[in-house]
Each structure stands twice: as C-alpha cells, then as structure tokens.
What we know:
The complex is a heterodimer. By secondary structure, chain A is an alpha/beta fold. Chain A is 40% helix and 11% strand. Chain A is built from 8 helices and 5 strands; from the N terminus they run ααβαββαβαβααα. Chain A has a 3-stranded parallel β-sheet with strand order 3-4-5. Chain A has a two-stranded parallel ribbon with strand order 1-2. The longest helix of chain A is centred in the last third of the chain and has 16 residues, at 130-145. Chain A is globular, with a radius of gyration of 17 Å. In chain B, 28% of the residues lie in helices and 27% in strands. Chain B has 5 helices and 7 strands; from the N terminus they run αββαββββαβαα. Chain B has helices at 2-12, 35-44, 111-122, 152-158, 166-173; strands spanning 16-22, 25-30, 49-58, 63-71, 87-95, 100-102, 125-127. In chain B, the strands form 2 sheets. A 5-stranded mixed β-sheet of chain B has the order 1-2-5-4-3, with helices on one face. A two-stranded parallel ribbon of chain B has the order 6-7. In chain B, β6, α3 (111-122) and β7 form a beta-alpha-beta unit.
Amino acid sequence: MDRNKICKWLKNPGKMAHKYSFHVVYFCTGCGIIEIPPFITARWDAERFGIIPVATPRQASLFLITGYVSTKTLKAIIRTYEQMPEPKYTVALGSCPINGGMYYDSYNTITSLDKYIPVDGYIAGCMPRPEAIFIGVTHLWKLIDMDKADGYQRYREDYVHYRANQEQLYGKMDWPPLFSEENI
Amino acid sequence: MMNELKQKLLSDFNDIEVNIPEDNRMIVSTKKESVLSILIYLKKLGYNHLALVSCNDWIDDNEFELIYIISAYQKNDEQYQDIEKSSIIVKTRISREKAKFITIIDIFENAEPYEREIHEMFGINFEGHPRLTPLMLERNYKIPPFRKDFDTNKYVENTFGKIPSIKERKEGNK
C-alpha cells in the first residue's frame, strides 16, 4: 500500500468514507436503466468501487439519472432527491438530461435537468457503456476531493430559485417546500 | 374463409366497404352509425378479442379516423380453429370539429384504457365512458398533443424554453 495515501486519508476521513461507499437509488428513468443491472451485478461488479444499490432513497447517497426525463418522472425525481440524506450526489447519464437530446422537441420531455435539481456530473454517450459509468464515478471522487461536488449545498442555498422553476413547470406543487427561510 | 365472411357482411350491411389485402386480414370501412352493430355482429361470429383501438388525424379531410382491430381469441374450440389466426380491422371516420363518439365498453370491456388514451391524446369525447380522466400526461394542453395542428417546437419553446436557468434567476433577482 502506498504510504503517502495514509496521510491523505487521515487528513479527511469523512470525505474518504463518502467517496468509497456510494449507495445508489434503484430508480429508473428512460432507456439507460438497462445499463445498470450489468453495472451492478457480476459482469462489471460495481461493488469493487464501493457502489451498492439500496431500496429506498432515505439510505442512498448517489442518484443516477439514466436517460430522458419526462415531466411526470421529473416530479418523482424531485421527490426522491429531496428525501435523500446529505451529502448526496447526482450524476446524469446520456445527452437527454443535458439539453433534451433526441427528444428536444417532445411535448412531454424536459430539455435540461439542471434547471430543476442540481447535477454534479454528466456522462456522455447514448447510452454510456458501464465502463464509462466507472470513469464517471472516479471523476466524482476527484470532485469530492476538491470540494467541487457541491450540488446538495447549491440546492440548499438556491432552493428558492429551484422551487420557483419547479413551480413554473407544474403550477402548484403537491408538497410543501423542503427548506423554509429558517433552516437554509 | 375470408371471402365467405365478406359476402356475409356485404349482404347484411349497407354502406360498407370490405377489402382483403392479404390472407387472414380484412379491412372493413364503414360509416360511424354502423360501427357498433358490425362489432357486435363480428363478436358473435367468434372475433371476441379486441386487440387495439387506434386513431388517425386526417387534417386535410378535417376528420379523425378510428380504428378497431379485432381477432379471435379462443383456440381450443374446434369451431374457432380456422379463424384463430385472422384479424379484422374496422375503420370509421368522425368529424374533427365535434370530436365525439360512442364508447364500445359494453361490447369489449378492454377498450376502456384505449379510449381514455385517445381522449387524452386526440381530445375525442367518448360518450358513456365511465371515467375520462388523465391517464399518462401530467400537464394540461390547450390542443391535445397528438393532433396534427399541435406545434411541438413552439410548445417546447414556450414552456421548457422559457424556464430560466438558476444562474439567470439569481442575476434577475439582484
């Protein structure tokens, strides 16, 4: 084992614990979910990287948005994201969450996801191979080391704006705001 | 087999057009008044499975076309042996302005979700349907989205395009 790494780990043990034990929400949006079963199971075995799927968002720390997002799914995504405990990271797969992709003119698919929830990273491809997801995860490690994966902090700070965007799309929302003025 | 049925239909109904494009397939074009009686007639002959209800928007003719695809479902009975692979397509046209039609739930119960979907996507009102509530869509549309005069590019520009990014919102508030 590299001795230099020990100092690095001892410097910030909490960060290291976040990095090497991602719990993924088992939540499927769009076509990319077909990449997730081989990604998690024996063929590519995501557990080598400390990634394990969990049943409920209340135990999860990583949210993979796998493909296009319809307006109905976005509602579920927002609810799921708000239920996850902090720190939480979002990674979007494919080109559809960036600008709509091939569904740019669809009547029912939103065009850019980061107007509604913060996204820490995008993985390019349509769909990305499981290897690309691993590369994305290792990039996310680097971002966490550099304190750049701050999506959940941005969500807290700019919650008013995110909520305003969500309400502009849906009209009145079914649930109360996650953060009120006091606990931001 | 299909030719016998064709002769039967032509002798029993007026105002219908029967085509047989290939073996085991028949297209019956009819006026909207006689759709229900044709469906009942065919159901009694053994075509007791409704496979699909579909809709077309012919905007140049100012008409909607409703399409019912029915086939034979029972297979073990000897009586149905020869018709089990055949399917019949019943087509009718209704006016586009007053888009309404009668529900066929009383004949084929599984038409309910199809009619709900057509109501949602094309705005056709099915009289007698127990619940024409939203099935799949989340938002309300002024023009139902599957109609030909629904401009998707314009719609996307006006709804999703007009939502500002978080950066723009922050700068706008300052």
